[in-house]
Amino acid sequence: MYDSLPQLTEKIHLGEDATIESKREMPRRSNLADEIAAFANAKGGVILIGVDNGSEIVGLDRQELNKAEKTVIEICQDSIDPIVLILTEKLRIDDKNLLKIEVPRSLFVHKTSNGYFIRQGSSKREMSPEQLARLFQTRSQARIISFDEQFVPNTNQKTLREPLYRRFITEGAAEDEIEDLLLKRRLFVKEGEEIRASVAGILMCHEKPDDYLYNSYIQAVLYRGKEKDANDQLDSKDFRGPLDKQIIDAMDFTGRYNAVAAKKDIGRIDIPQYSMRAIFEAIVNAVVHRDYSKTSSKIRLFMFDDRLELYSPGALANTVTVDNLRYSQATRNELLARLLSELTLDDEMRRQVVRRHFLERRGEGVGIILNESEELSGKPPVYEVFDDELRLTIFASNSISDLRLKGI
After folding, report:
1. Which end of the chain is more exposed for a tag (fewer CB within 10 A), N or C?
2. Beta-ladder partners of 393
3. 264 forms bridges with which residues in the sheet?
């Protein structure tokens, strides 16, 4: 919005309206949170820091400018629920610095500590109960489209990375066909006349998805003992990148610390702490079925002496329950599932997990997790839902006392 400097300068001189708000200096955090949420709850807009109410560009010094940008990002992540994805831009007009904050129309209804606000004319207004109910209804209807097929604000045709999106379009496609092919695959979607990257496009075709979709990565931690204690952390990693890379990196982490015992009957039999095939299914399921609209947490994988825990944000989809998981096939992110089912594994990983693609879509995943894990440990894995999050606990092999840890 107002992408060219002449257009923005003209808009500044015309003064505030339903799409633009001016601030001489950084306001209080709570006040700015209300303004951003109000634009996101309406049709979007622009907030300018360094312009007074009389349309005069007063500017910020360089230190103020940098501090303002950092504070704005923190406000969007910490003071608005759910978080708002914005685009900040440092500009220089008439030899003065100002910060442009572009707030897109959101797919959600946003709340601050002061309540629910919406932009009306040149000011924000707290929404009445009736107005709030209508907005919730309207935005819920918009989200009938699967979340992974919806557009990501502040993206365009150049956001997706060619080596990554080429994996999903016909080999040898002409350059003038690529945009249409990406639209057909829903890696691109249209927002009015603009072309944006979809949620699935960002997750599969960008090297840093969490730059756009907050917390869209996997965190893994290895603990000594049976409890979460920072003093007992032996290793921890955050796995970022396209989702298929996150899956492989999380598998490598787990495999590195998957203890193995040797049983000598006729020859040597290795008994691992965990079935890597089961772990692979669990990680893939977490990635495919997590609710990416919930940005307050990431997928977390914790390894203890006696168990592995895997947390995935979002409750179970549709009519699925922890009791019928083995027999149900509801997919929260159908587009992501299709894309992962097209990617092949390398030979080494293929041998470990006994499959060709990241996702086979035969509905066998939960059964593999339950059966192979219980066969090793004698205990069935446990699925639990709490705080709108799914936790899977896989217990270590019974021979844990005889295991020697690899790499520790």
Report:
1. C
2. 309, 382
3. 268
Angle, in degrees to the nearest 10, between helices 365-377 and 276-289: 140
Show the tokens assigned to 349: 């990983």
The tens place of each residue's pLDDT in the chain, 408 residues long, gives 777 888 888 888 888 888 999 999 999 999 999 999 999 999 899 999 999 988 899 999 999 999 999 999 999 988 998 888 898 999 999 899 999 999 988 878 999 999 999 999 889 999 998 888 888 877 765 555 678 988 887 899 999 999 999 999 988 888 889 999 999 999 999 877 889 999 999 999 999 999 889 899 999 999 999 999 999 999 999 999 999 999 999 999 999 999 876 555 555 566 789 999 999 999 999 999 998 988 778 999 999 999 999 999 987 765 666 676 776 666 789 999 999 999 999 999 999 999 999 998 777 889 999 999 999 999 999 999 887 899 999 999 975 544 444 444
Half-sphere exposure of 280 (CA within 13 A, CB side): 24
* 372, HSE (Cβ side, Cα atoms, 13 Å): 20
- Do 292 and 148 touch, CB atoms closer than 8 A? yes
What's the order of all strands across the beta sheet hosting 96-103? Answer: 20-23, 45-49, 96-103, 87-93
- What is the chain's length? 408
Distances (CA, A) of 225 to 54, 86, 222, 238: 63, 42, 9, 21
Q: At what angle do helices 62-78 and 29-41 cross, to 10 degrees?
A: 60
